[in-house]
Specification:
Elements lengths: L13 H22 L14 H21 L2 H6 L1 H18 L1 E3 L2 E7 L2 E3 L2 H17 L4 H5 L1 H18 L3 H6 L4 H6 L4 H19 L2 H18 L4 H28 L2 H10 L11 H12 L26 H33 L4 H25 L17 H17 L3
Antiparallel strand pairs: 1-2, 2-3
Length: 416
């Protein structure tokens, strides 16, 4: 027997796996702590308890990881578009046959369990984006590549909106980070930031104030571009585009966002105060994190989370449980662990000889970073509560399996 024969798991990056295991373990311990009751008997695989179900999903995720590592990398790249198409059809079917849970029709119910297919659409979209950008293109094709790329991420985002799952829809905007790595115009990023400013200004005031603000900017721009016909026309065109955006804001705010999402945005912007309603989740989350102090109350000694003061404490708001029991030190360690994972992904991506692997790695890093920033931000009141999980930590099989697949595909693709 040839001992030098390569194995399917040769060259697997142990650092990424260590980070993954650490996050999954922290997640399970936090889920267990939120349900812990010293007066009740403990059974590790008690399916009546969230920690029992999560443990089953963790074991299934480990099996899934081994399956991904056993797949030939050539097959992953060859069938990237097919995987994308299959999952787009799957999440589209949810719009018609899905089950409504917490206001979002994003779930398929199988017996007593529910699966959220949109979580798997993230890695499918990452595969399609990697395939698209790594394919050789003619000069003519390069002129329209950004349109195609935006369509690829726009399809699952629109379907998520049809499912009334705004949080998942926003996750697909994280691919913009990869776009800039691939040469996307930096001015578009500034336009995006300016659009956010206009959105806030329009919501806080009204369309007239925003249009007046734009008009002042246009007058200044026209003054500096006088004598240059092309610049003048460009500035007028940009002005017209942003005016249309301003009048689209209220439509999106009133017709696309759900009432509880509008209330949360109003709370963040200071337009309303509702401590027992829209503000309740955020206030309880802040109290839980703040009560942890520097070192925390200690594992299994949380009170806000233990007594169910914090809604969704093992899913969207699981970070506040960590803050309460482990304090500032624990939160800092967790964020550092995530950043180590993301930085490792970027460093390995830059070393890839295959463009497909490099691009996919950036997609993985972008998605995880977006989830981290938004989830932590919403628990401390920096961003509106839109309901997205903390990767590898939040309770839920769909999220864990989706992120496991997302990460381990890159671990398999890593050719260093």
């Amino acid at each position: 027997m040839n001992n030098n024969q390569p194995t399917k798991f040769k060259g697997v990056d142990t650092q990424l796996i260590i980070y993954y295991v650490a996050l999954v373990v922290i997640g399970w311990l936090t889920i267990y702590s939120s349900a812990y009751d010293s007066t009740q008997p403990f059974h590790l695989f008690d399916l009546a308890q969230p920690y029992g179900r999560q443990l089953i999903w963790i074991i299934a995720a480990a099996v899934l990881a081994f399956i991904v590592l056993a797949i030939d990398t050539k097959l992953i790249q060859t069938y990237a578009y097919l995987v994308y198409a299959v999952f787009m059809l799957l999440i589209l079917s949810v719009v018609f046959i899905g089950t409504d849970i917490n206001g979002a029709k994003a779930w398929i119910k199988i017996g007593s369990f529910s699966i959220q297919p949109i979580e798997f659409a993230k890695f499918a979209t990452a595969l399609a984006i990697a395939k698209f950008f790594s394919s050789a293109k003619t000069d003519k094709e390069r002129k329209t590549q950004w349109i195609t790329a935006f369509i690829l991420i726009g399809i699952p985002a629109v379907i998520a909106l049809l499912q009334k799952d705004t949080g998942s829809a926003l996750v697909f905007t994280s691919f913009i980070i990869l776009f800039y790595r691939e040469g996307f115009n930096g001015w578009v990023l500034l336009a995006g930031i300016f659009a956010i400013i206009l959105f806030v200004l329009t919501i806080v005031t009204n369309e007239l104030y925003s249009v007046a603000f734009l008009t002042v900017i246009l007058v200044v721009a026209l003054y500096f571009s006088k004598g240059d016909k092309m610049k003048t026309l460009r500035n007028i065109g940009i002005y017209a585009g942003f005016v249309l955006f301003v009048f689209a804001v209220n439509f999106a705010y009133n017709e696309v966002l759900q009432s509880h999402q509008r209330q949360r945005i109003d709370t963040i912007l200071g337009k309303s105060v509702d401590p027992k309603g829209a503000d309740f989740n955020l206030n309880q989350s802040k109290i839980a994190i703040g009560s942890g102090g520097f070192f925390g109350k200690g594992y299994l000694h949380g009170t806000q989370t233990k007594l169910n003061f914090v809604p969704e404490q093992s899913t969207d708001f699981i970070f506040c449980g960590i803050g309460e029991e482990w304090g500032f030190v624990g939160c800092t360690f967790l964020i550092a662990l995530y950043l180590a994972l993301i930085i490792r992904l970027i460093l390995l991506s830059e070393k890839q000889r295959n463009p497909f692997s490099r691009i996919y790695g950036y997609c993985v890093a972008s998605i995880i970073f977006f989830h981290l920033a938004i989830n932590v931000g919403m628990t401390i009141g920096l961003v509106p509560i839109i309901g997205i999980p903390l990767p590898f930590i939040s309770y839920g099989g769909s999220s864990l399996w989706g992120f496991t697949t997302l990460l381990f595909i890159f671990i398999k693709l890593d050719d260093n």
